[in-house]
Amino acid sequence: MANDFSIKIRDLGKKFNREWIFRGLNLELHQGQAYAVTGPNGSGKSTLLKIISGIAPPSSGEIEYFGNGKKINASDIYKHIVACTPYLEIIEELTLREFLDFHFQFKKISYNIAIDDLIEIMYLRNSKDKKIMDFSSGMRQRLKLGIAFYSNSEIVLLDEPTMNLDQKAIDWYHEQIKNTSKDKLLLICSNQSDEYRFSNQVIDINQFKKK
Ligand SMILES: Nc1ncnc2c1ncn2[C@@H]1O[C@H](COP(=O)(O)OP(=O)(O)OP(=O)(O)O)[C@@H](O)[C@H]1O
């Protein structure tokens, strides 16, 4: 894992049909920092996150990724990113244990923990052999977050991370952020200030809203 990872966003814009969602967005993001992207519903937060993670193309501008001073190819960026988003699909037919075995074939698990430790951390021990399709929405969200926090990736992207979480799980989220995000580049899209109260910089996407 690179320890000096950065993302340079230059003059970025996205339009759907003829409408610009945002335009002229310039940002520099660094590993070890937490950033929040805020704005009302439909302002383009999720769209920005998709562009940063390489799953949607920008309409203008560019994004460059650097690891330890070297430029990283955009086509390789998925190796360095892990995301927890509402549209992230998990394989419903697998049990929790099977799903984690599958996921961690592609991403390394971090902090020298075992998959069973992660199951404990997510407090899903009693659901190890349950199929994901039978998870409650809060269990599913803890699973997505657990994967994001404990995959060995420099960039962690969270979209509405406390969605469906009860108070115990929201407290868990904050504790996990504290335990795992110090050495990451963390970007959180959110409307709720409590979700990103620890962030170093808040970016209001509306300031890049131009016709
Ligand atoms: N594939 C698409 N085609 C057309 N329009 C789209 C597409 N994806 C998003 N949009 C539009 O782009 C705008 C921004 O959507 P986005 O989901 O990024 O907003 P958001 O800030 O994440 O909203 P929310 O807070 O509701 O999650 C919306 O008007 C949405 O309808």
From TrEMBL:
Q: Which domain of life is it from?
A: Bacteria
> What stretch or stretches form a coiled coil here?
none
Fetch the InterPro entries from UniProt: AAA+_ATPase, ABC_transporter-like_ATP-bd, ABC_transporter-like_CS, ABC_Transporter_VariousFunc, P-loop_NTPase
Q: State the Gene3D superfamilies in the record.
A: P-loop containing nucleotide triphosphate hydrolases (3.40.50.300)
Give residue ranges for domain ABC transporter: 7-211
> Which keywords does the record carry?
ATP-binding, Nucleotide-binding, Transport
One example of the protein's molecular function in GO is: ATP binding
KW Lyase (keyword) present: no
Stated name of the protein? ABC transporter ATP-binding protein
> Organism source for this protein?
Fulvitalea axinellae
